[in-house]
Amino acid sequence: MSLVSPSRQSNNHKLYFSKSEISKILNCYSIGVSNGEWKDYALNFNYNEAVFFFFKHSLASPDCILIKFKEKRKKRIIYRLSIKNKKNSKYENLDSLLVNLKRSQIFII
User: Fold this and answer.
1) What is the pTM of this model?
2) Residues 6+ apart with CB under 8 A from 87
């Protein structure tokens, strides 16, 4: 007799960033590091979302949060960007999100 019900055999995989996505994100992160904006980052993976945090200091709250998540109804991948807990935008692909993030890093002197 099995103690685990057969319905418990659901998909157990976590959502991750692909290698190309990580390289694009780290490229954008390196621009922020060279500008002196960011000094640390963190990754978090869950069953329905993958999160990349950008920090100005290791002990501070994140300046920027990039989230990749699955929509439950439509079963598609959506990207969300939150900059300094103020701007919360949704994107269909990672490239358009990174273009917007790079625009926020450009300073006019």
Assistant:
1) 0.78
2) 81
46 and 67 in contact (C-beta within 8 Å)?
no
Q: What is the 3-state secondary structure (H, E, C) of 6-69?
A: HHHCCCCCCCCCCHHHHHHHHHHHHHHHHHCCCCEEEEEECCCEEEEEEECCCCCCCCEEEEEE
User: Could you tell me the CA-to-CA distances from 63 to 70, 72, 73 in Å, in that order?
Assistant: 23, 28, 30
DSSP state of 108: -
- Give the tens place of pLDDT for each residue, 60-101: 889 999 999 988 887 889 999 988 877 788 888 999 888 888
The per-residue pLDDT for range 14-35, each reduced to its tens digit, is: 889 999 999 999 999 998 898 8
| Tokens encoding 103 | 């625009």
Report d(CA 48, CA 66) in Å as an integer: 14
Residue 85 zone, left/alpha/beta (φ > 0; ψ -120 to 50; rest)? left
